[in-house]
Protein: Neuropeptide gamma
Organism: Oncorhynchus mykiss
Amino acid sequence: SSANPQITRKRHKINSFVGLM
């Protein structure tokens, strides 16, 4: 269940990058 939060963090970073574009 440690991979779940890790994926969310990665997704959040990608979302932030897309929002900046």
User: Anything to note?
Assistant: The two ends are 31 Å apart (CA to CA). Helices lie at 3-20.
